[in-house]
Each structure stands twice: as structure tokens, then as C-alpha cells.
Amino acid sequence: MPIYDYKCDACQHAFEENHPMSAPPVRQCPACGAEKVRKILSTGGIVGSTKGGQDFSPPAASPCGGGGCGSGMCGMPGMG
Ligand SMILES: [Zn+2]
């Protein structure tokens, strides 16, 4: 069952609620009773994705090799 983090805008009370996704979100603050509760993104380490390596693929190589083609030699039709 997922855990949701909530925070009350009225009294700044933060709390967690675990309820099924099908259940409606909490609207009322358990501390002050104000309906100023909003759901915040959980910062818990439930879904920890730590990629230490370089998992970044460079963009597609440009026709001119990315060397600053300013001479129209990229092979683009009508541009030369
Ligand atoms: Zn409150």
C-alpha cells in the first residue's frame, strides 16, 4: 500500500497516510481540522534510483559532426 505525504497549509502539519490508490486523498488535517491539506511528493527512499554512472546518451550526431558547420557543408539540401 503506497504511502502518501500530506501537508496542511493552515498549520503546516505534515503527516503520512497509507491508503490504496483507489481511495480518495486526504482533505482534512488531522491536527487542526482544516481542509487545507495537500498531497506532496514523497521524498522517501522507496523508489530510490541512484545512477552513479553516465546513463546519458548524447543526441544524434549532426551531419557535420558537431564541429560548428558554418559553411553549408552539412549536406542539407537547399542550404548550400
Ligand atoms: Zn492543519
Report on this structure.
It is built from no helices and 3 strands. With 80 residues, it is an all-beta fold. The chain has a 3-stranded antiparallel β-sheet, with no helix packed on it. A hairpin with a 5-residue loop joins strand 1 (3-8) and strand 2 (14-18). The protein is elongated, with a radius of gyration of 25 Å. The structure holds zinc ion. Zinc ion (ZN) binds next to loops. Zinc ion binds at residues 8, 10-11, 13, 29, 31-32, 34.
Give a short synopsis of this structure.
With 80 residues, this protein is an all-beta fold. The site of zinc ion has 8 residues, from loops.
| Outline type | elongated
Run of helices and strands: EEE
Question: Cα distance, first to last residue?
Answer: 61 Å
- Total number of helical segments? 0
Radius of gyration: 25 Å
The main β sheet shows up as: 3 strands, antiparallel
Give the overall pLDDT as a whole number.
75
In percent, how much strand structure appears in the residues? 15-25%
Overall strand count: 3
Strand order of the largest sheet: 2-1-3
Q: Report low-confidence residues grouped into runs of 5 or more.
A: none
Ligand identities = zinc ion
User: Would you tell me the structural class of the helices and strands?
Assistant: mainly beta
Helix content: under 10%
